[in-house]
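One such shown below:

_____
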Amino acid sequence: MKTKITTSLLFAVMTLFNVSAATAGPVGPGTCSNSDVTANGTGGPASAIYCTNQAGNDGNGVNFSANINSLFNTEFGTSLSGNWSQLAKNDAIGNQNISSGPWDFSALAASITNPFVIVLKATNNFAAYLFDFTTDGTGTFNTVGITDDSKQHDISHISIYTLDTISQVPVPAALWLFGSALMGLVGIRKRYTA
């Protein structure tokens, strides 16, 4: 009986030391690869030039578009400038339980400016992919690099961000109007001084 208790106790202690702690906590941002997302352009499909992982969500009150320039400029030394806006977001893809496949914003192809950013969201993290060419609005994606557990999690949504276009006022027209107003003021001044 004493041997049985000692053996059981020894087995319990050995089992305790061999058990590793289970990690059921949240997964963090992973390490994306530029080839996780491709976009089709005039020369065929091409990978992103840069990608970065972030915790959280690119939408739902988070002003990700305001941080695109600093995010890529700080991490990769790019010289992005201007204001970014979310051109489109596909939430329906999140209902399909997929972790890789095609993305399609071809209906908006004429509005997709160069450069543009594709964002993939899975779990509590997202990855942003910067492209520097004109696209037809289609491509492929893979969620393997979004989280740090090396798993392909089902996608929540895909978003596309583009630089806002600013309509320029033609300088000659503005100068002509300013010049006319200035000449009118000079004429009025001469009339009162004469």
Summary: DSSP finds three helices and nine strands in the chain. Residues 7-25 have pLDDT under 50 and may be disordered.
